[in-house]
Amino acid sequence: MQFDRLDPAELVSLLLAAIAGGSLYAIVVTSPPLPQGKHITVLAAASMQNALDDINAAFTKSTDVKVIAGYAASSALIKQIAQGAAADVFASANLEWMDFGSRRKLIKDDTRVNLLGNQLVLIAPKDSKLDSVAIGPNLDLAKLAGNGSIAVGDVREVPVGKYAKAALEKLGAWQAAAPKLAMAINTRVALTMVARGEAPLGIVYTTDANGARYCGDRRPRCVENLDVLRPGQSAAAGVTPSVKIIGTFPADSHPAIVYPVAGTLTAKPEAVDYLAYLRSTTAKAIFEQYGFTFLLQPAS
Fold it and tell me: What gap in Å lies between CA 77 and CA 7, rounded to an integer?
């Protein structure tokens, strides 16, 4: 966990809320030290980290408004907001936790939009003998994992885990696979477990796998220095990949993966410009670079 210099009141608020919610370990704040001036706090799903870091830097360069970014499981973040954590924008990896925020009057419903889509993929360590897995009905994921585990987000609360459970149930693989699941606090932790060889298989978003390749020297704040091989691809010269994508779950095997975003009830005025920036052509290009599907008609 990493905390950079935050406004004291916001830091205290975020810490107290995290402690109350029992999920202090899940927060990652990645913005640079902040001078006095305009700033907003954005709490976003862990799978958005790489793309949002780039977008936040571009937004700050364009507007001189600093962005304090916190990344964790969507479930943990909205519960922290409910406990009083300071936040201007919330971005979730599923509709359920944004709906929770709406019911609890934590977000401004008129600012809410479904911004992004994603895919669910199966990954393995780079040196795995598994190269390509046909994911369909009667998938025997437990057999593929052998004596090892299957890394995934917590299927009870974390969006990627919920999507994974739905897919495994639809494909008839849940009953055998469930005892082998190693449930992580968010999708980035599941990715790291596979990269370190702690699990022979993992279920993550395609953007986690795509985004891992950008965690090199120019991104010291990333969780791991990872890269990814897709089936049939070779690693770039001089790059040692840590994980590879070995299969993609059919889109109809789980609910559509949708990322809604909204301003919070206590959002600063600058949040309006930030939400507009997320819909810009600049943001669209960055999101798509990391593998997200952009669901809106971009603004100029």
Answer: 19
The one-letter code for the residue type at 297 is: Q
Q: What are phi and psi of 66, to 5 degrees?
A: -80, 150
Who's near 12: CB < 8 A, 6+ residues apart?
none
Closest CA to 241 of 163, 136, 126, 158: 126
Query: 192 or 15: whose pLDDT is higher?
Result: 192
- Which DSSP symbol is given to 92? -
β strands within 73-180, DSSP E: 89-91, 113-117, 120-125, 150-153
Angle between helical axes of 49-63 and 270-278 (0-180°, round to 10): 120
* For helices 95-103 and 74-82, angle between their N-to-C axes, nearest 10 degrees: 10
pLDDT digits (tens, 9 = 90+) for 227-254: 333 333 332 222 235 899 999 999 999 9
Among 166, 181, 157, which Cα is nearest to 77's? 157
CA-to-CA distance for 121 and 138, rounded, in angstroms? 17
Beta bridge partners of 164: none
Evaluate whether 254 touches 85 at the Cβ level (below 8 Å). Answer: no
Would you call 224 helix, strand, or coil by DSSP?
A: coil
- Helix (DSSP H) and strand (DSSP E) numbers for the chain: 11, 13
Query: Which one-letter amino acid corresponds to residue 165?
Result: K
pTM, two decimal places = 0.80
CA atoms within 13 A on the CB side of 295: 12
